Amino acid sequence: MEVAYGAGDGDEDAKAIVAKSEAHIGTLFEQTYRPWDGELGPRWVRNYAIFRHHVYGLFKGTGHRHYHPMVRLAIFVILLYSLLPVLMLFLASLSSDSFMNDTFSRLWGINRYNLWGQVLGYFPRNLCCWPMLTALVVGGMISDDRKFGTSAIYFSRPVTRTDYTVMKYVSVAVVLGFVIVLSYFVYYTSAIVFNGEGWAYLVDTLPMFLGGLIAGILVVITYTSIGLALSSISQSRFFAAIAFLGVIYGTKLLALLIDSQFDSSILYVLSPYDSLAHIGQWLLGIEPNYDHPLAFSVVSMLLYNAASVGLLTYRVGSLEVTRE
Amino acid sequence: MDSASGPEPVITSRNLRKMYGPHLALDNINLDIPPGAIGILGPNGAGKSTLFKCLLGLITTTSGEGTVLGYDIRTEGDKIRSKIGYMPEYDALDPGLTGVDQVRYSGELLGMNPAHATRRAHEVLQYVGLKDQRYRKIETYSTGMKQAAKLACALVHDPDLLICDEPTNGLDQRAREFMLQTLKKTVSEGNRTVLMSSHVMDDVQDVCDRIVMIHQGKIVVQRRIDDLANQVEREIEISVWGGASKMQEELESRGLVVRRMGRVMRVIRVDDSTTTEIINAASTAEVQVRQMQEYDPDLEDIFLLIMDKLGAEVKGTSDLMTEAHTGGEETA
Hints:
The complex is a heterodimer.
Chain A: E1 15-16, E2 23-24, H1 43-56, H2 69-82, H3 84-94, H4 98-108, H5 112-120, H6 122-138, H7 143-148, H8 151-155, H9 161-195, H10 199-232, H11 237-262, H12 272-284, H13 294-317
Antiparallel strand pairs in A: 1-2
Helix pairs in contact in A: 1-9, 2-6, 3-4, 3-9, 5-10, 5-12, 6-9, 6-10, 6-11, 9-10, 9-13, 10-11, 10-12, 10-13, 12-13
Chain B: E1 11-20, E2 23-33, E3 37-41, H1 48-55, E4 63-68, E5 71-72, H2 77-83, E6 84-87, H3 99-108, H4 114-127, H5 143-155, E7 161-165, H6 173-188, E8 193-197, H7 201-207, E9 210-215, E10 218-224, H8 225-231, E11 235-241, H9 244-253, E12 258-261, E13 264-268, H10 274-285, E14 288-295, H11 299-309, H12 323-326
Parallel strand pairs in B: 3-8, 3-9, 6-7, 7-8
Antiparallel strand pairs in B: 1-2, 1-4, 4-5, 9-10, 11-13, 11-14, 12-13
Helix pairs in contact in B: 3-4, 3-5, 4-5, 9-10
């Protein structure tokens, strides 16, 4: 029996002269239906497959979700940049010069401002790094399923829409968390290790660290919610990425202009970044940069998350298995 | 409807109704589908996709009940979807993945462990004729290869029931024949049940032994194709030369019912004397009868006959096709 599809490179028309004068080389195969009697795993196995597909793709070139090499490179560069303070602390620990030690310690050492800056500093982390990272990861996360019809692959199987949404959310959050939260954790622990600090230092700084950790987790959650919601409303990964950057930068710019013209910080509640920054300042015990009450920023962050998750759930609900 | 004294039905439903707001999509659907190959036929908008969604347990029914492979479609949708393979009509493949990765991932989404899913992906890709192309990215696949890859995704866990939505969409003749042969083999060798919807009656007739016809959300026919063919009035097909219109008039004046397609006419066979009547009519009308034979109705004739009786304005099955069905080619 001949196969239905040639290799497309001319092989199907190739001829070879062997024993007979002219013989066609055809690909012959026996089409035999082979049963499979294995056991299907439970729900967590299916859900882990979704998670693995999206996260492993960042590390492996084939076999999982395809991320463009430039995307993977950009994420790697952002990860390296987020670990820059670790390098600086290491260099400072090598130096015996007290001036250099003081300078390095002031710029990169553990204190409230540096811990806040590691996750919530505007330049460069929340201008260049985290929004860019989020845009690169969420672009196509759901919009590709809508564009290519791959939602049918999920929903014609025992994958519920809740499982699908949660696992996509977790996949994005883990990647963002790996860069934002893990780099924060490495930064803090390396400061202790390189400076040879003891328990007293740990006890002194742990509350600050935990405040920053919570702020970092809030950044991951909020950026994931907004990014995935935007990914779910279109068929274009480019739209999701650009729209996310637009939301983060646009609201910030608008609030900044209003603040500079009218000396009012109230419009910063429209900016997800500023709401998070405000909450982060409170968590780390830093004097806030904003005039409006903290409660406004908390409500803003909650509303952003609620609206994004609501939109995400609604849009995932509209993904089709059969198209009318 | 056939009697239920056969093998255990794979799909059953009783008074199944589905309403989208005020629109009635499925109306009192009663099904008893035994194992084998079954074709789901019906014009666009008849309710085929809605029926599939109900059977997959993806949408809740407004009323009625049903089972697929013994599982309740209202409460055990996840179990049903574990046991069946669904091949969607449109593209449902990630172009960035290779064929083997796509099929493996489809298996993993069912709960197969990665090693089993990979091994099985190689097996089913060979089965559907994509052994040599399995390491190519799907974005490089032709339409036929994509259809085969979708079939492989549906077969990866060796489902008891395979639901194929327009499996021959956009395929060239060679790929189409291979797809149909694969489906037939899945039924005959794999002993699996195949439920396929198609607008191409030849495909359904080629693969299926029975049909379910839906019209305006209702089941209008549910039986074996052979039984249906036996019920259709027998016809004699003649090819005439030199005055087809005169011949038609003459035949009709003799009380015969004629369907004319240019020089070819089909005359309903009343009894053994019909042949003699046709020859006498030709003699009277002074036309040549160049060919005369018993006409065996095919599924297309049956479909059009039923649609005609239902008052649906369908002149041919090509009327039912969109560009997606024909791959952009004009239908005859």
